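Throughout our pipeline, every protein is held as a single compact record rather than as scattered files. Nothing more is needed to write down the fold, since each code stands for a local backbone conformation. The record that follows is passed on verbatim for readers who wish to inspect the format.
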Amino acid sequence: MLIGLSTHSPGQAREAVRVGAGYIGAGPIFKTNTKADVCDPVGLEYLEYGTRHIHLPFVAIGGIKVHNVAEIVARGATCAAMVTEIVGSVHIEKKIMEIRKVINSRPPGSSQRSA
């Protein structure tokens, strides 16, 4: 079983590694309204830092939509959590296929890690 920790900074990511987390939740990457008490976006720079310097899977979360998921993949995220983009869709299966198409269409060599 993997236990993850939500983080918002490089220092928190390093602490997650120190305490034995199995993966890191990184975010919110973009502005999100899913939660009322969410912090300001941490941005793509933090995600890129984590995927380059922390050797745990980084789960990008927060404001991720079909129009910006390619940016997450390009920064090396191994996983992206999407809530409203999927459950808010009238046709969930079609939305998931659309997201997968974007993820799988990244140029070869654009990321060393898979999404």
